[in-house]
Amino acid sequence: MAGKLLFGLSRLSVWIIVGGVLLWQRMRISFIRTVYFLAFSLFPFVGGMANEEASDPGAFYRMQPGDTVQVTVFNEPDLAVSQKLDPGGVIIVPLLGRTTLAGLNLREAEQKLEELFISEEYLISPQVTVAIVNYADQVFYIFGEVNQPGAKTFPEGKQSLDILEAITMAGDLSQYAKRSEIVIRRPVPDENREEKIIVDLEDVLRGNNSLQTTELMKIYPEDIIFVPERLF
Fold first, then answer.
1. How many other CB atoms are found less than 10 A from the CB of residue 55?
2. Residues 60 and 105: beta-carbon distance below 8 Å
3. 166, 225 in Cβ contact below 8 A?
4. Cβ proximity of 161 and 139 under 8 Å
5. What is the C-alpha separation between 73 and 130, in angstroms, rounded?
6. Could you give the 3-state DSSP secondary structure of residue 122?
7. Which of 3, 44, 78, 79 would suit a FRET pair with 144, their CA atoms being 20 to 30 Å apart?
8. What percent of the chain has pLDDT over 70?
């Protein structure tokens, strides 16, 4: 009788332990899914805010044909102009005539125009401001283990995306995607080469990303994203 009682208690103990393990696993999976959801939902907002404060958009984007550019000179209203860069990247500036701005960022364009006004002896100390009124259509490319690979057009008015937005535009990752080694290839202006950036999306989702890493994970026009296939 005592033996049967002990045997029954032993079986009950085993089932209690197994049940506890299964419950813990389910709670763990639920917790991980919750973290993933929050990371996908909040990261674009938090990361975007940090980068907008830390970086100067005018120092990165390089003008190209099709951009509508506005040039103003402080206290010289007659020199203001707003034009679309022609196929050669040229704008016609009062007094200066045809001036190539394609390939320059906003700060470089301002400096170039100021130097031209001075060298041509039109102005002594000009203060030029260059702004982009409308951007030409911008694209990035994403290939590999995503559901809708190919060229993707940036949303109107945006000149950068975080990598999670870019992946969403490609229909999300496939079930075979290797999240820990996503490759971004970025053309380096005037150097005829590409910069290669490796992104560990698992780290991003866990929140293990510094401000510098967050900036590197930004997607810019002409970037190429490749999502490799995991081996197991």
1. 14
2. yes
3. yes
4. no
5. 9
6. coil
7. 44
8. 69
What is residue 74's predicted lDDT score, i.e. its pLDDT? 96
Q: Which two tokens stand for residue 150?
A: 């190919």
Give yes or no for a contact between 152 and 221, defined as CB atoms under 8 angstroms apart: no
In this structure, the strands spanning 161-162 and 182-188 are unpaired
Structure tokens at 216: 């590197």
Q: How many H-runs (helices) and E-runs (strands) does the chain carry?
A: 5, 12
| DSSP-assigned letter for residue 155 | P
pTM strictly above 0.70:
no
Quick check: 194 and 186 in contact, CB under 8 A?
yes
Structure tokens at 137: 């259509």
Report the C-alpha gap between 230 and 232 in whole angstroms.
6
Q: Are 131 and 69 in contact (CB under 8 A)?
A: yes
Please report, for residues 12, 20, 21, 182, 205, the alpha-carbon distance to residue 15 in angstroms, rounded to integers and kept in the order given. Answer: 5, 8, 10, 43, 35
Mean pLDDT of 152-173: 89
What whole-number distance in Å separates Cα of residue 185 and Cα of residue 207? Answer: 23
CA pair distance 218, 24, nearest whole angstrom: 37
